[in-house]
Amino acid sequence: MSPTAASPTVRFALLATLVLLGLAGCAKLSASHLQLKPWQDGGTQKIYAKFMHFEFQTLPHDKGFEVKGTAWPIKENIPLWADTVENLSISAYLCDEHGNVLTTTTKNYPTQKIPAAGFPVDLPLKNGGQPSGGYFVTFGYSTMFTASKPPTAGGQGSGGITGNYVFFANEQAVLTR
Asked: Where are the domains of the chain?
């Protein structure tokens, strides 16, 4: 074999990389599985996801849009011992009528106790074009609900791991073809 010839393993790795890049080019982000609300300039709206509740307004902003409001965990759906969030990220998705994501933005929050007033949401969105069916908005989130101190008894989300109480919650847009 000449020194410039690639081994079969290297050729396979290059081919696999090219195929994956080609497939990624065909993929699009979809939020059709999430609750979508029609865009309303100014009016207050609510979205209830599995573990988070969002109350928000949608507003025009600097050649784009803005979503302002508050997000709260739905206490009935998370473990009683969960009083802290770690790695919380909240995303706003501007979509067409089919849930295809036109543009998105995400805010990351520091580890903190769950505030009684909720998590403030202020997310600017770029103009995503002009869909024929109008704009729709929804939210995604990802977080770990944790206990600031170990609870006295196990429960939902404890996973039987002694001393570690983590409840992972995630609802986001997904890649589709």
From this structure: 28-176
